[in-house]
Design a protein that fits this description.
Elements (H helix, E strand, L loop, with lengths): L2 H23 L5 H19 L7 H21 L7 H4 L5 H32 L11 H14 L6 H23 L3 H6 L4 H11 L3 H22 L8 H25 L6 H27 L15 H6 L14 E2 L6 E2 L3 H10 L4 H20 L6 H12 L10 H18 L8
Antiparallel strand pairs: 1-2
């Protein structure tokens, strides 16, 4: 049977399973339904948008088996049953929600300033000044930073600490966006994106912006669950409009940052070459995993967390992270389209072996379901915890979000701030 036809048949199974999970969970917002939808859409888009890339029905079925393991865990962990969720959902008093909103709005001020401090320190580390951002020196600046990043030169810790603080503000922004209906306040909730966007354009690294988007979405969705339970419409006209506009805006940012890395200038040839390169970044991870899976998943020995929590292991002197996480590349199209990061699944297999990965996702499904129903029942202190899980799931198409200490510290800071704020005034927070 033709390989492409087999891939399409497997994608039909993805769609059928996604629809089944949505029917059983009665919402797209539960961890199981959202994770299944996310990977169904991701695999489907990759197959459609990059038909010349390598895709394996066996590897895709393996990914589907992971989704099934996660869903099974969610079924074990769900309590109370979904059918009685609306009756059991509690709400934090309106006064408490308003207080949290005001406090986190104030918190956005120092966290946004911290982002600009990170930009200032970045420029200083390379010997540049802010006024040079508007001068011809900008192109040389981005080239130097790109080259030094690729040879493994790390940024100073003060810059990373500032980014962690800013990311914690992004998590606060997710709460604010979910709480308010005011367009003005929702716009303010996005203010921490300004310094990170500037940082991305200067440093030409996509990771900080990607991590920030993932954290914002995780916090926003988790907070929405706290406010509305499972009464959330995912595919609304407003969501489709803003989702499309945001995706286009992100694509433009990525195009610009990628062209800034090269020395070919902004022309039609460079635009087409950049698009081909980004196509590998957007759709090549799954293809790389498929090729790696079919080659037998060569593993020397389990890393036991040294990849999943690479930054922490490096900080403790237990291991050293490689540039780009992995040294080996896969030509996923036969036309020198190279990819070296093959999704979170590869990372977990290398860390904990093929025989443990389904158990890991089963346990994660149980934990995520317990947190989800706890939040829906009024336990708002679970918001930072479920945000950690959702961020982990949303970043799974690339790698582990917690390979980087900057992201771990961001959640720790946000968790501390959020917990302290809930204790300021008495309320029905369990």
């Amino acid at each position: 049977m033709n390989m492409q036809f087999q891939v399409l048949l497997v994608m039909v199974l993805f769609v059928l399973f996604s629809v089944f999970v949505r029917w059983q969970q009665k919402t797209w917002m539960s961890p199981a339904a959202l994770f299944t939808l996310f990977w169904t859409a991701l695999c489907g888009l990759s197959v459609v948008m990059a038909p010349d890339f390598y895709f394996s029905p066996k590897a895709l079925l393996f990914i589907l088996s992971i989704l099934i393991a996660f869903y099974t865990g969610a079924i074990i962990g769900q309590a109370p049953p979904l059918a009685v969720l609306p009756e059991s959902t509690g709400q934090t008093p309106a006064a408490k929600g308003a207080f949290m909103n005001r406090a986190l709005l104030i918190y956005l001020i120092p966290t946004t300033l911290s982002g600009f401090v990170a930009v200032y320190l970045l420029l200083g580390f390379y010997g540049y000044h802010a006024e040079q951002l508007l001068s011809p020196a900008f192109a040389d600046m981005t080239q130097i930073m790109t080259k030094e990043r690729y040879i493994g030169i790390s940024l100073p810790k003060p810059i990373m600490i500032c980014l962690s603080i800013t990311f914690s503000g992004t998590l606060a922004g997710g709460y604010i966006y979910a709480y308010t209906k005011s367009i003005y306040i929702r716009t303010l909730s996005l203010v921490t994106f300004v310094p990170i966007l500037l940082f991305t354009m200067i440093y030409t690294a996509r990771a900080p912006l990607i991590f920030q988007i993932v954290m914002f979405l995780a916090s926003m969705i988790t907070s929405k669950i706290a406010f509305k339970g499972d009464d959330i419409k995912l595919f609304s006209p407003k969501f489709l409009l803003w989702g499309t506009l945001s995706s286009l805006g992100l694509f433009v940012v990525f195009m610009i940052t990628q062209m800034l890395r090269s020395e070919s200038g902004f022309n039609l040839t460079q635009i087409l070459a950049t698009y081909d390169h980004l196509r590998v970044w957007f759709f090549g991870n799954i293809s790389g995993f498929c090729m790696w899976y079919d080659l037998g998943m060569p593993i020397d020995h389990p890393g036991w967390g040294s990849l999943t929590f690479g930054g922490f292991y490096e900080m403790m002197g237990l291991s050293t992270r490689k540039l780009g996480l992995f040294e080996n590349f896969m030509d996923i199209s036969g036309k020198n389209d190279l990819s070296n990061i093959y999704t979170l699944f590869r990372l977990l297999i290398e860390d904990y072996s093929l025989y443990s990965i389904h158990l890991i996702w089963l346990v994660l499904g149980i934990v995520s379901a317990r947190l989800y129903f706890g939040i829906a029942a009024g336990k708002w202190l679970y918001i930072p915890l479920l945000s950690i899980v959702y961020a982990f799931l949303f970043c799974s198409f690339i790698t582990s979000l917690y390979t980087y200490n900057t992201n771990i510290f961001a959640f720790i800071i946000f968790g501390i701030v959020f917990t302290l704020l809930t204790a300021v005034k008495p309320g029905k927070i369990h």
